[in-house]
Amino acid sequence: MSFRIDQLNGILQFQITRPHIHNAVNHEVIEGLTLFIERMKQPDVHFGVITGEGDKAFCSGGDLSVFHSLVTEAEAWEVHNRMAMLLYELAVQPVPVIALINGTAIGGGAEIASACDYRLIKKTAKAGFVQGRLAITSGWGGTTLLHEKGMRYDHLLQLTTEAEPLPADRLVDIGWATEVYDGDKWAALSKFVHKMKAHHPTVAKAYKELLTTKLREAKVKERILNEARQCAVLWEKEPHHAAVAQFLNRKK
Ligand SMILES: CCC(=O)SCCNC(=O)CCNC(=O)[C@H](O)C(C)(C)COP(=O)(O)OP(=O)(O)OC[C@H]1O[C@@H](n2cnc3c(N)ncnc32)[C@H](O)[C@@H]1OP(=O)(O)O
């Protein structure tokens, strides 16, 4: 199984369990995320958490050994469209969702984290929109969501176009990460939600509803689909296929 879902004290946890491959997203992970988002709607869920197993990676994005079989724009669109709609759903969930970034978060992994409400990042972790290295753009809605949620325009443009993973402290400086933690991730999570959990769960839900109204009104869904489409168009081109082949063959 590529994921696990657990619920503890009102916190629904989704963990990608593919540490050998830096928790890259395959079809099973996509199914798991779908299930997680569905379960988050249950009344006994007060927070959602996404994390990766192990101490190296949160998520290294799409599993290139799986998705390199997508050759045409239409094939790529099918996966990007599904992931983009999932991340949109994640962003407008009724409860706050925390990305517990226990290690590297790059490519689609950084997009998943961007769709969450909070990003708690381990002191030694790095994150970034590295898609440009593969001659594509973000395709799961991460850039649109960050822009809509108010990330500073120049910082966002630099993050996406330089395509370099940045250290945790810098990610806080540019307004992407919420807080840096050191030590055990579950202890950090517990500390982070402590004050919010002291109040009735309807409070956080109500504020989240207020703040996500903007996401619903601004036709964000449509723009996210444009982001997915743009990525699918580039995906089909030779520079992307050449970059993926180079990554997959680099140790041969
Ligand atoms: C759909 C949009 C997208 O998300 S496109 C995908 C964007 N992601 C990437 O380009 C990440 C590619 N991966 C990397 O840059 C590196 O593997 C990172 C994550 C930095 C880790 O580097 P390092 O610590 O040196 O480990 P490594 O490269 O030896 O990796 C260990 C094994 O994991 C694999 N891996 C990692 N990430 C992916 C991935 N996204 N897709 C497929 N495989 C991945 C590596 O290939 C490696 O496998 P193996 O042990 O050589 O068999």
Give a brief description.
By secondary structure, the protein is an alpha/beta fold.
Explained architecture:
- With 252 residues, the chain is of the alpha/beta class.
- 49% of the residues lie in helices and 17% in strands.
- The chain has eleven helices and ten strands.
- The strands form two sheets. The chain has a six-stranded mixed β-sheet, sandwiched between helices. A four-stranded mixed β-sheet has the order 4-6-8-9.
- Helix 1 links the parallel strand 2 and strand 3.
- Helix 1 runs parallel beside helix 3 and helix 5 runs antiparallel to helix 10.
- 42% of the residues are buried.
- The structure holds propionyl Coenzyme A.
- The site of propionyl Coenzyme A (1VU) has 19 residues, from helix 2 and strand 6.
State the main characteristics:
single chain; 252 residues; alpha/beta; 6-stranded mixed sheet; 4-stranded mixed sheet; binds propionyl Coenzyme A
Describe the secondary-structure layout.
Layout: E1 3-8, E2 11-16, H1 27-39, E3 47-52, E4 57-59, H2 64-67, H3 73-91, E5 97-101, E6 104-106, H4 108-115, E7 118-122, E8 126-128, H5 142-148, H6 153-162, E9 166-167, H7 168-173, E10 179-181, H8 185-197, H9 201-217, H10 220-235, H11 238-248
Parallel strand pairs: 2-3, 3-5, 4-6, 5-7, 6-8, 7-10
Antiparallel strand pairs: 1-2, 8-9
Helix pairs in contact: 1-3, 3-10, 4-5, 5-10
Propionyl Coenzyme A (1VU) binds at residues 21-22, 24, 60-65, 104, 106-108, 130-131, 134, 139, 247, 251.
